[in-house]
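Researcher: Good morning. I'm working through a list of sequences from a screen, and I'd like to move beyond sequence-only analysis. For each chain I'm collecting a predicted structure so we can compare shapes side by side. This is the next one on the list. No need for commentary yet; just the structure.
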Amino acid sequence: MTRFLIRRILGALVILLIISAVTFFLFYAVPRDPARLACGKVCTPETLETVRHNLGIADPVPVQYWHWLVGLFAGRDYGNYGHCDFPCLGYSFANHEPVFNTIVDRMPLTFSLSLGAAFFFVLFGVGAGMIAAVKQGKAVDKIASSASLLGSAMQVYFVGIIAMYFLADQWHVLKRPEYVSFSDNPAKWASGLLLPWLVLAIIFTANYTRMTRSQLVEQLSEDYVRTARAKGLSRRSVFFRFAWRGAMGPIVTIFGLDVALLFGGAIITEQTFSLQGIGALAVKSVNESDLPMLLGVTLTAAGAIVVFNIIIDAVYALIDPRVRLA
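Model: Good morning. C-alpha cells for this chain:
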C-alpha cells in the first residue's frame, strides 16, 4: 500500500509541474502584453513599468517560469510591493496583496460549501439508489428513476433562484445564504449554507441515484452473490458484504471528481448565491484582468483535482487489493 501511494504521489507531482508550466505559458506567453493584463484596468504608465520589472517580462518565458517556480518554494521579492513569502503564487496588483493570501482567505467558504453539499448529495443519492435497487421494478424504483432524470436536467442557477425566492424570501423556511466561520458560530455556519447545500444536492443526487441503482442491480445478479445466498447468508449480509462493496468503485470515482470540481471553485453556485469563495474570486480576476490571481486560482483548482484523484486511488486500493498491483 505504501509503495502504491508513493507512486501515485510522485506521479501527481509531475502532473502538477506540467500543469503549472502549461498554464504559465498560456497566461504569460500568449497575451501580447502580460504586464498590461497583470496591471489591471486602472493602470498608470509608472505602475505598468513597475509590473514589467517585477514580472521579469524582459526575460525569456522559460526564465520567467523558473523565477516563478523558485518563488513558489522560496518566496520572492516584488520591488516596492514587498516580499511574497513561501508559498508564493504571485502578487496581485489589483488587490495589492500576495495571491496565496487571498486564496487562503476565500478557501474556507468553498471548502465548507463543497463538503456540506457532498454530504447531502451522497446521503440522498446513494440512499435513493439503494432503495431503487432493492425494490427493482416496483413503484419506488420508478419514482426514484424519474426523479433522478428530472434532477439531472436542472441547473444550479435556476433551482437556486427559485429556492431562494420561495424558501427564504416568501416562506422563511431557510435563511438567505451567508457565510459565517465554523469556529465563530457552528449553528450560523450550517444555517447560512444549508440552502446552497440542498440545491447542489438536488443537482448532484440524480447521478448518484442512477449510478448506485445500476451498479447494485448488476452486482446482485453476479454469480458470487447468488452463491452467498445459496450458502444461507441473510439478505442484509449479502447486500452489504458483497453487492454493496462491489458497487462502490464507480461511486467513489464520481464522488471524488465532483468534490474536486466543487473545491476547485463552484463558480456558478457562488455567483448564484452571492458567496465570495474561490469561484467568485476567479470571476473577479477575469473581470479585472488580474493575471497573477487567475493563474493562482487555476493552479489551485488543478491541485484540488489531482489531490482528490490520489485519494480516490487510495480508496480503490482499500476496496480492491488488485488495484495496488497496477
